[in-house]
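Researcher: Batch entry, complex prediction.
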Amino acid sequence: MSPAGEERPRSDVDRASGASVQAPLGARAHASGGAVDAVIVGAGPAGATTADVLANAGWSVMLLEKGPNRLLSLDAPYPLLGHLSNDEIKFFRRHFLGPDPLLEPRTYRRRDDEGDRIHVGEVNNLPSGVGGGGFHADAKLPRFREVDFHARSEYGPIDGADVVDWPLEYDELEPYYTVAERLVGVAGDAAANPFASWRSGEYPMPPGADMYGAILTTNAASELGLNPYRAPTGVNSVEYDGRPACNNCGFCGHFGCPIDAKGDPVAPLRSALGTGRCEVVANCYVDAVLVDGSGRTATGVRVIDTETGDTREIRAKHVVLAAGAFETPRLMLRSGVGNSSDLVGRYLMYHFQTFVVGSFDHRLHGHRGRSVTHLHDDHLVPDTTSLQYARERGLPYFRGGIVEHGGGGHPVMEGMFLPHGVAHTQGMLESMMRDKLWAFTMQGEDLPQAQNRVDLDPQVRDVHGRSAGRVTYDPHPHDLVASEYAAEILNRVMRQAGAQFTFTATSPPLPDSRGARYSPAPNSKHTMGTARMGADARTSVFDPWQRSWDVSNLLCADSSVFPTSTGYGPTLTIVALAIRMARELAGLPKLTS
Amino acid sequence: MSGSYCYLDEHDAAVLAAVVDRLVPPFGAHPGARALGAVDYIDGALGAFATDPPRIWAGGPFSGRHGGEASFHRFTPLTRLETLAWRTRIEGSRGDPQREWNGPVRGWQEIYRDGIDALDGDPAFATCTPADQDVRLAAAPRDFRELVYVHICEACYGPPEYGGNRDLQGWTAIEFPGDVQPRGWTDEEVSGRA
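Model: Structure tokens for the complex:
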């Protein structure tokens, strides 16, 4: 299918060149000394979506991925390779989806006065491989709200943060959200959430089965005046786009789907591959973005074949960065491109995560179902009570984030959480920390601060000898006050649902929390803002169409461009923006609702 | 214990058998880590490269326990870099410049060697009283204590293809069904209390 745009090739693109693929596209272009129309760095949701739009518009595309391809066959009809499974050791303990922290360590410090780093290893690692951060997630795919695109105008400034309006409004993005939901396949209930942004149509699928524990906590939330709803989820509730309905196996978040019931980014990858104009190249580490003598035009990329260690150059008419908000700024800084604003890597945002956990007197079997089946948005919307709470703490306002109603973890993790000795064995038999546990996770809005950033570690190296990416990150007081406020409410809801006891933890861990015994680095997989887009070249890295202000044929398709983090999961917005960006690049008409 | 190991010798296996049962002892319906095969699991991890493909990642998509063709037992081939990472993690960097892009790495084999050496003494660890075992464990290197505990948890509650969770007794004891594909769960099983 060609869901992201009808074919309408640009006149300067030779469509015939990709019509019948014999030799690999890149090899052909390379052998002939020619350049592909676009080389895309990173084969996750952003890169796969961009490849889909461009290839369907007639462009020749190379989609480069530093990790291996463990996802799908590159031969039609592109079936899954069969590596994805219900295996906690493989996916949780042994880095099957990468990146291996030995090969690609990341470093972390809270502030630059802490020295070069306080932690080396995993820092917000998202999978490194074909499929990227998409196929391992439990695929909650909400849209942002209208106000998220102009929070600065709506709420005013906050000291210590650079909250800005986005260079586009929700109304402009709405039709792209609609295409994104159809492309990925989102199951949801349009009428369920009173805080939802307006939408031009129904979800492509109805919601899937409610998890038992979520029925308890959503009933309790409703009784206490909150507005829980069935989460929009990129998991099939019915057969969709040739892929089967989910069978509720419970190994959803952090695992890939063994039966092909998740669409992100399998669907855009198949659509791109089906054109015959998109070559997916795995085990291909992009070492540098190359520019010409003027510094204003990208000529391609230099890559390392990680299976052979060989280096080569790939010439391209356009370079699209889609490596995620950690690797994209790392690559730009390493290459020395696109940073006249000195903002590349800055304004790093996660979601400030608040976990409120309840333990019940009976088993909730959270291992059945889609990890999380319900959300509520109430803490995203300031009200008179929260505004007063904010002002008493020196803030004009705060906003939290979506709250996920989800089950406990898996048993290896449960065992590691328990002390050794009989306490371990008894604890595992009782399962207070897994089978009798239910959890709220609030993905709180994290404000953009210039000193929170990704840069290059001065000593630590990856296996290729390149500087590791280093995170400097400390949450804004806004994030902590929002967390504290919501946690009190969420503990009440959890007790109302029947929990015998509850507790609160956060990520990054607060110094006095039980999480402090683990890594000090934040654990959120939602990474944003490190090359923000905007209408002014002095205060942004990419323009409103995600094109570099400095290098005219360098673009960014991932969440690096987000000016703010909002309180919603980023993936659907990444996909919608990538469709909008790629259609504009390919000269396709703008979509309207 | 199976009595034949790919990496451990009999002495080390005997020490570890006592260690894993001291850290995760039998209690009620829980057979304890030794009976669940934790020593076999550790042996499989330390000797992962004794087989080809190495015993790092079980295959997929299905185990065969709930339908479909059994494939977990066919381990996954590694790429060049994955091989480098896992050999380095298990064997240590051993002064090899190709393994020391960030300096020396202490491998699992060395961590276990030093840990077992620290537990050895007279009387033998396995014959000590539980209280004396705790004293020796507390004095053992921290990286050993942490690593062996992680490996015990993986052994007891991970898929049996890695050598632990013998006869699925780990999952049975804690009422965890384990992998369930391709059967999955019905909507009623997801939403109902039972």
